[in-house]
Amino acid sequence: MGCSYLALHLACNANVLLQIIQYLVQNGPRALKSKGLHGFPLHHACHSSADLSTINFLIQAWPDALKTPNQSAALPLHEACHYCGKHANVSAWLTYCRALSLVAASNQPSSLLPLSNNADSQPPPPPVMLLKTLVQAFPDAVCIDDEEGYLPLHNLCCNEAALQIEVQLLVEAWPEALQAAALGRLPLHLACQHGSPVNVIQYLTHSSPFATKVQNYLGQLPLHVACSNKLDFAVIESLIQAWPYSVLVPWDYIKKTDVAGSVVLKLVSLWSTAMKRVEFEWKTMTKMTVMKCPKTMMKKTAMKASTSSMYKTKKMTRKRKMMKKAMVMASMPSIGMTKKLM
């Protein structure tokens, strides 16, 4: 089926009751394997941060949806990381967790809070449970990137509503994601670029201090990105404390952009020359195949001979017709002669 909406996609987007989704699947099981705008129904449910009961039901109905990418090569975990915390059904939990994390960060700005301390006696927020369910169901999803090279951690760092408990969950599942670059940017660059909460950037900084020394594709350090986006003082302080020399590292914008432009032009020129070379080789190969194949050559020569003989015969018949006409005209007397004879 094409990329179109079915009733099941719309129900997953709207986060309806589980009874409705079960009834839709019962009457149309094939809808579980149909792609909508964001992918399969499980992708749509993760996109809208659906209830855990809905997520668990869709996983049990078709477990392969966890491993099947959508049109953007994104898994359900990518969708959940990019959009979790952006919907009204988790706004109350988001306010509670943000307030709790800010209090903890103000008491211990450089400490790393484990998952149990963040929650205390309260249950974890729904986005965290959603990510935890997806990671437990398919652990390898944390190390799979989409078509742009983004891991789930990159998508979560692009989400300004992300929480430290969510970032910590993905980092503990695969710590190597902290050093993975997506389009020349580490998770710390993306968090500073998209304005993630203070405790999230502090956690990334303390989890991977080496990331503060890495430049992105424009030659910017995380400190440069944070200052350009007017982030809080606590973010600037944590980045400088991780690498004090970063305040003396320059960022030559003109030089870096010129280098990027020259690289792009060089790639374009290489591509054009490669395409010309391929076209030339293709033409030579076709010529060689024609020369090597005697049947084609015989056909061509026969066609040439037949066309030339047809042309010659037409020319001869035309000449003969003209000769006959001339002879007839010569044999006929002129108008003056006929008058004399009369």
Q: What would you report as the Rg, rounded to the nearest angstrom?
A: 37 Å
Which stretches of 5+ consecutive residues score pLDDT under 50?
A: 88-92, 109-124, 334-342
Structural class: mainly alpha
The span between the termini is 96 Å
Briefly summarize what is shown.
This protein has 342 residues and is mostly helical.
Summarize the structure in words.
By secondary structure, the protein is mainly alpha-helical. The protein folds into two domains: 72-251, Serine Threonine Protein Phosphatase 5, Tetratricopeptide repeat (Alpha Horseshoe); 255-341, no CATH class. 62% of the residues lie in helices and 0% in strands. α1 (7-14) runs antiparallel to α2. The chain is flat, with a radius of gyration of 37 Å.
Q: Topology, pairings included?
A:
Layout: H1 7-14, H2 18-27, H3 41-47, H4 52-61, H5 76-83, H6 91-107, H7 115-119, H8 126-137, H9 152-157, H10 164-173, H11 187-194, H12 198-207, H13 222-228, H14 233-242, H15 253-292, H16 294-331, H17 335-341
Helix pairs in contact: 1-2, 1-3, 2-4, 3-4, 3-5, 4-8, 5-8, 8-10, 11-12, 11-13, 12-14, 13-14
State the main characteristics:
2 domains; 62% helix; mainly alpha; disordered C terminus; Serine Threonine Protein Phosphatase 5, Tetratricopeptide repeat; 17 helices; 0% strand; 342 residues
